[in-house]
């Protein structure tokens, strides 16, 4: 069975600062993909970043980057230059064998 | 291009009533999914479909049925609603399975009294 664990229920960051959200996972699949989704108060699930497990290079999307440690089964999200619009629930997820499995989420609060 | 849409956005049911949630996508995606989101638990897969006319069980299928009669639509049915089915329901779609990003609808908030 695949599991995704987010150990931080809530995080806070000052505007313009950097924050890292943690995620660990477990799977027996050799081919899988990892994602971070953002869910603002509007409830819409928005893809932030995606990482293919076979790629060693960490994915980057503008201010968002990941630290993918395959051996440790760790997939953290770093948000640089945090903005008020980054405030949301962030979900780590992985997919292997057609099924997307989510972590419980981390609420990110951004202070001005 | 509307992406993934869900109908209705909100619904209140009494215990024992039935209802159907409709999901529609206009991206010609093969795969479609129904999830429920409960506080502190993330999203859990209810049922999914890998193509028109196919359905399969996910992690929490009990109490729900689905149908995929047309490629663009995926229906989620509750035959006899229970308070434990109070949740936010999300539909998603993807072009293929494992490798492709899933795109989500805006969600349906369902309350069962």
Summary, kept brief:
Chain A is an all-beta fold. Helix content of chain A is 0%, strand content 54%.
Description:
The complex is a heterodimer of chains A (112) and B (113). Chain A is mainly beta and 112 residues long. Chain A is 0% helix and 54% strand. Chain A has no helices and 12 strands. In chain A, the strands form 3 sheets. In chain A, strands 2, 5, 6, 10, 11 and 12 form a 6-stranded mixed sheet that branches. In chain A, strands 3-9-8-7 form a 4-stranded antiparallel sheet, with no helix packed on it. A two-stranded antiparallel sheet of chain A has the order 1-4. In chain A, a hairpin with a 6-residue loop joins strand 5 (33-39) and strand 6 (46-52). The mean pLDDT of chain B is 93. Chain B contains no helices and 11 strands. The radius of gyration of chain B is 13 Å and the shape is globular. In chain B, strands 2, 4, 5, 6, 9, 10 and 11 form a 7-stranded mixed sheet that branches. In chain B, strands 1-3-8-7 form a 4-stranded antiparallel sheet, with no helix packed on it. Chain B has strands spanning 4-7, 10-13, 19-25, 31-37, 43-49, 56-57, 65-67, 73-78, 87-94, 103-104, 108-112. Chain B starts with a strand and ends with a strand. Chain B is mostly beta strands and 113 residues long. Chains A and B meet through strand 5, strand 6, strand 10 and strand 11 of A and strand 5, strand 9 and strand 10 of B.
